[in-house]
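Format notes (please read before filing issues)

Several people have asked whether sequences and structure tokens are stored in separate files. They are not. Every record keeps both together, in the order shown below: the sequence lines, then the token lines. Line labels are part of the format and must not be stripped during preprocessing.
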Amino acid sequence: MLEYKRLTLYPDSRQLLVDDKEVILTAHEFDILQLLMSQPDKVFSREQLYQAVWKDGYYGENNTVNVHISNIRKKLKEQLPDEVIQTIYGIGFKLV
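Then the structure lines:
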């Protein structure tokens, strides 16, 4: 189990709870959030996220990670008014 602020993530059951309410994520969204929550102080580059989640090479200017981060933010915003994932411009993403 991983906890960060009001988020509780259960890797074995692939379940995310915000204040005990389930938030449904796709497999890739779940994997991205799990990686971010595993090291909440670390800034992950798009390349690192892509390689960890898709297990494939990153060839730059791929919008895939951005789209998935955006979808996670939208789903979390329904439960949390404050931003959870911060964009570190020119570097990547981290939890706030």
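For reference, the curators noted about this record: The longest strand covers residues 7-10. The chain is about 35% helix and 25% strand.
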